[in-house]
């Protein structure tokens, strides 16, 4: 068997295994529907009090914290999107400082969800945007948290 055929075969096995593992994760992760705020709170709760040692973040290395970390990496990127690159009007009405950290964004989300349990069944992205907008609204001075 050629090296190329073996590599392609291993790729299909790997993809098949990944697909099987993905399908076994159940309705929360196996569907195309976004997680609810309640589900994301459950996944992120271990990151609510991160341990920082110098410049190093020490956090649990499990599936839930990985999902949370990746989800809020995306949210941290989109909160700065502008309506027009030449204007200073953020799409989501969020004027967060440029140096905000992902752990700060997660804390803001978790605190907002705790104070607003009526939003727990909503899409976590919507709730996260509301939380960050409440913390850093445009038109008011932005102070680091």
Please describe what this structure looks like.
With 145 residues, this protein is mainly alpha-helical. It folds into 2 domains: 1-27; 34-135, no CATH class. It is 52% helix and 4% strand. It has 6 helices and 2 strands, in the order H-H-H-E-E-H-H-H. A two-stranded antiparallel sheet has the order 1-2. Helix 3 (37-44) crosses helix 4 (63-78), helix 3 (37-44) crosses helix 6 (124-135) and helix 5 (102-115) crosses helix 6 (124-135). Residues 1-30 have low confidence and may be disordered.
SSE order: HHHEEHHH
What integer value in Å does the Rg equal?
19 Å
Which sheet architecture does the biggest sheet show? 2 strands, antiparallel
- The count of domains is 2
Write down the overall mean pLDDT. Answer: 75
Q: What structural class is derived from the secondary structure elements? A: mainly alpha
Helix content: 40-55%
Shape: globular
**Separation of the first and last Cα atoms:** 59 Å
- For the secondary structure, the number of strands is 2
Unreliable stretches (pLDDT < 50, length at least 5) are 1-30
Strand composition percent: under 5%
Helical segment tally?
A: 6
Give the neighbour order of strands across the main sheet.
Answer: 1-2
């Amino acid at each position: 068997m050629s090296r190329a055929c073996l590599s392609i075969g291993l790729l299909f096995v790997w993809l098949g295994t990944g697909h099987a593992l993905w399908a076994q994760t159940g309705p929360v992760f196996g569907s195309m529907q976004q997680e609810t705020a309640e589900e994301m709170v459950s996944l992120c709760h271990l990151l609510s009090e991160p341990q920082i040692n110098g410049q190093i973040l020490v956090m649990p290395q499990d599936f839930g914290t990985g999902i949370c970390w990746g989800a809020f990496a995306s949210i941290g990127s989109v909160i700065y999107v502008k309506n027009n690159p030449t204007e200073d009007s953020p799409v989501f009405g969020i004027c967060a400082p440029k140096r905000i950290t992902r752990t700060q964004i997660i804390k803001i989300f978790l605190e907002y969800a705790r104070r607003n349990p009526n939003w727990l069944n909503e899409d976590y992205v919507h709730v996260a945007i509301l939380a960050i907008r409440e913390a850093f609204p445009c038109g008011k001075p932005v102070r680091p948290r």
